[in-house]
From TrEMBL:
Pfam families: DUF2345 (PF10106), Phage_base_V (PF04717), T6SS_Vgr (PF13296)
Stretches assigned to the DUF2345 domain: 287-427
Protein name: VGR-related protein
Gp5/Type VI secretion system Vgr protein OB-fold domain boundaries: 81-147
SUPFAM superfamilies: gp5 N-terminal domain-like (SSF69255), Phage tail proteins (SSF69279)
Cited NCBIfam families: vgr_GE (TIGR01646)
Organism name: Escherichia coli
Gene3D superfamilies membership: 2.30.110.50, Gp5 N-terminal domain
Listed InterPro entries: Gp5/Vgr_OB, T6SS_Rhs_Vgr_dom, T6SS_Vgr_RhsGE, Vgr_OB-fold_dom_sf, VgrG2_DUF2345
Residue ranges of domain Putative type VI secretion system Rhs element associated Vgr in the record: 168-269
Length: 520
C-alpha cells in the first residue's frame, strides 16, 4: 500500500532495498492466462524527509447555486447579519432540517461598491433569493454573487413602469428617477410621520397624472431650512442652471433703488425740519450683510411680487431697525384696532399731496402729555364744529393775535389791544358781576423712558436659584424698592431715565445677607 516501507534481506538483494524503500504507488494486474501481479513504484526511505503524496484534486463548483437568506427571527422585518455584514443562507437543494438562521456559516455578499469606511450595502431580508458562487470554484469559499426577484417577490420595475429607475426599501423609503423623455422627474420619499418628499421635474400623482412641474419639498411633519452663512431665495430668471449660485443682481438693483428713494425723501424731510431716516443702518445692512451674503442673512427676491398670508397671526420683528420701502403706494388695512408704539420720536413727512386724517365715527384725540403742541400752517388754519361748540382751554393764559391786534386771557383778566379801530357789534351789550369758569384739565401720566434697565439673578454656591425670596433695591438717587424674586431667582427689571448704581440685597432670614447677584 502507498506509504508503507519495504526492506529486502539477502546478499543478492539490491542495495537500495536493503536500506528500505517507501511505496508511492501500486498497480495491480491479472488475466486468465496470467497470475495476479502487483507492480509498485517506490522511493528510497529517509528519516530526514517526509513523504507527502499528491493532493487529491478537490471538486470544482461551476456556476452558481440558488439559495435563500435566512434569519433566527420568524418574519423578520430587518436583515439578520453579523458584525461583518455577512448573511446565512439555505441552499435550495438542502433538504435537511436546520435551526432557523443556522443553515450555513456566515457568507459574504459581493457588492458593486465597497471599501474601508465606505460602500453600498442594501440589507437583505429573510426569504430573499440569492445566487451563491464560489471563489475559484472552491466549495469551501461560497459568497452571495447576486440577488433575484421571484414569483413570490416580484420585481418593482416591469413593463408597467419600465421607464423608471427605482430604489425602494422594505419600509417604502424610495428614490425614483423617471427617464421618460419630456417627463423626466426625480422623487425622494419616506413614509415617516405620514409622508415627506422631494419631487423634481415633471411632478405626477400615484396615477401618473401630472400635478405640477418644477420642484416640491413637502412633509406631513415639521420642516426647517437652515444655513449657517445665509439663505438666498429668488424667483429671478437663471435659465439652464447657468450663472453663479449667489447671483443676486436683480434683487440688489431693487434694494439699491429703494435706498436711493429713501435717501431723497429723508433729505427733503430734513430740509422741512422733520426727523430724517436712519440711512446708515440701511446702507450697512445691504453692503455688509445682504450683498453676496457676506454675513448670515436671508434675501428673498421676486420680480413680479411677494405675498405672505397667515390664517391667524403674522409677526415681523427686528432687534434693531425695521426698514420698508415702496416705489409707488403703500396700503395698510386693519378691520379692528391698530396700535403704533414708538419709544422715542415719530416723524411723518409728506412731500407733495398733504395728510388726511378722518374718523367717520368716534372721537379724535391728539395729546402732547408732557410737552408743548404746535400747529403751524403757511396759509389758513380752519377749526369748525358743524353741530356743537369749540372749546379752547388753557390753565394759565390764552393769547390770540391777528395782524398785531390781540386778546390775552389769564387769571388776572382780559386784555385786548389793537393798533387800529376796535368795533363791537351786538344786538345787546350788558354788564354783570364778575364770574369765573374753572377749567377742567386732565392729569397726564408720566412714563419712565427706561433707557437704562437691568435685572439681577441670585443663586447659591451650587447654582440653585433663590426663588420667591424678598429683596430690597437701593438706587444711587436715594430711592428704594422692595420685591420678591421669581421662580428662577430673578428680580424685576429695573428701569431708570439716567445711569444709576443699584445695590440689591436678599432679605431671607435663613441665609446671610447677600449683596449683588448676577447682572443682566
Amino acid at each position: 500500500m502507498p506509504g508503507l516501507e519495504i526492506r529486502v534481506q539477502g546478499d543478492d538483494a539490491p542495495a537500495v532495498f536493503r536500506k528500505g524503500v517507501l511505496i508511492t504507488g501500486v498497480t495491480a494486474s491479472a488475466a486468465r492466462d496470467r497470475s495476479y501481479e502487483l507492480t509498485f513504484t517506490a522511493i528510497p526511505y529517509s528519516e530526514r524527509y517526509g513523504y507527502r503524496p499528491a493532493l487529491i484534486p478537490r471538486p470544482v463548483m461551476a456556476g452558481t447555486l440558488p439559495a435563500r437568506v435566512t434569519s433566527t427571527v420568524k418574519n423578520d422585518i430587518y436583515a439578520h447579519i453579523d458584525k461583518d455584514g455577512r448573511y446565512r443562507v439555505n441552499l435550495d437543494f438542502d433538504r435537511d432540517t436546520w435551526k432557523p438562521g443556522y443553515e450555513s456559516l456566515w457568507v459574504r455578499q459581493s457588492r458593486p461598491y465597497a471599501g474601508d469606511t465606505y460602500g453600498l450595502h442594501l440589507p437583505l431580508l429573510a426569504g430573499t433569493e440569492v445566487s451563491i458562487a464560489f471563489e475559484e470554484g472552491n466549495p469551501d469559499r461560497p459568497y452571495i454573487a447576486g440577488v433575484k426577484h421571484d414569483s413570490a417577490h416580484t420585481d418593482h420595475v416591469t413593463i408597467q413602469n419600465y421607464k423608471r429607475n427605482v430604489l425602494r426599501t422594505p419600509a417604502n423609503n424610495k428614490i425614483r428617477l423617471d427617464d421618460e423623455r419630456g417627463k423626466e422627474h426625480i422623487k425622494v420619499s419616506t413614509e415617516y410621520g405620514g409622508k415627506s418628499q422631494l419631487n423634481l421635474g415633471h411632478l405626477v400623482d400615484a396615477g401618473k397624472q401630472q400635478r405640477g412641474e418644477g420642484f416640491e419639498l413637502r412633509t406631513d411633519m415639521w420642516g426647517a431650512v437652515r444655513a449657517k452663512k445665509g439663505i438666498f431665495i429668488s424667483a429671478d430668471t437663471q435659465d439652464k442652471a447657468q450663472g453663479q449660485v449667489r447671483e443676486m443682481a436683480p434683487a440688489m438693483a431693487i434694494l439699491d433703488g429703494a435706498q436711493s428713494q429713501m435717501k431723497s425723501l429723508s433729505t427733503d424731510a430734513q430740509t422741512a425740519n422733520a426727523d430724517p431716516a436712519d440711512l446708515s443702518s440701511q446702507i450697512a445692512l445691504l453692503q455688509q450683510s445682504v450683498k453676496d451674503l457676506t454675513q448670515a442673512a436671508i434675501l428673498l427676491s421676486a420680480p413680479k411680487g411677494v405675498a405672505i398670508a397667515s390664517g391667524e397671526h403674522l409677526q415681523l420683528a427686528a432687534s434693531k431697525n425695521l426698514i420698508a420701502n415702496a416705489g409707488n403706494h403703500a396700503d395698510i388695512g386693519v378691520v379692528k384696532n391698530m396700535f403704533i408704539g414708538v419709544g422715542q420720536a415719530l416723524s411723518v413727512f409728506v412731500r407733495k399731496a398733504g395728510i388726511k386724517l378722518f374718523a367717520n365715527k368716534g372721537a379724535i384725540s391728539v395729546q402732547a402729555q408732557n410737552d408743548l403742541m404746535e400747529l403751524l400752517a403757511q396759509k389758513s388754519i380752519v377749526i369748525t364744529s358743524t353741530e356743537d361748540e369749540i372749546k379752547i382751554t388753557a390753565k394759565k393764559k390764552i393769547t390770540l393775535n391777528g395782524g398785531g391786534s390781540y386778546i390775552r386771557l389769564d387769571a388776572c383778566g382780559i386784555e385786548a389791544g389793537t393798533p387800529g379801530e376796535y368795533n363791537v357789534k351786538a344786538g345787546y351789550y350788558g354788564r354783570k358781576p364778575k364770574a369765573k369758569l374753572t377749567p377742567e384739565l386732565m392729569a397726564f401720566p408720566v412714563i419712565e423712558s427706561g433707557e437704562f434697565n437691568a435685572k439681577f439673578l441670585f443663586t447659591d454656591d451650587d447654582g440653585l436659584p433663590y426663588a420667591n425670596t424678598k429683596y430690597i433695591a437701593c438706587f444711587s438717587d436715594g430711592t428704594q424698592k422692595e420685591g420678591i424674586t421669581d421662580e428662577n431667582g430673578y428680580t424685576e427689571n429695573f428701569n431708570t431715565d439716567s445711569k444709576q448704581t443699584i445695590d440689591v440685597r436678599l432679605l431671607n432670614q435663613n441665609i446671610d445677607m447677600i449683596l449683588g447677584g448676577v447682572h443682566e
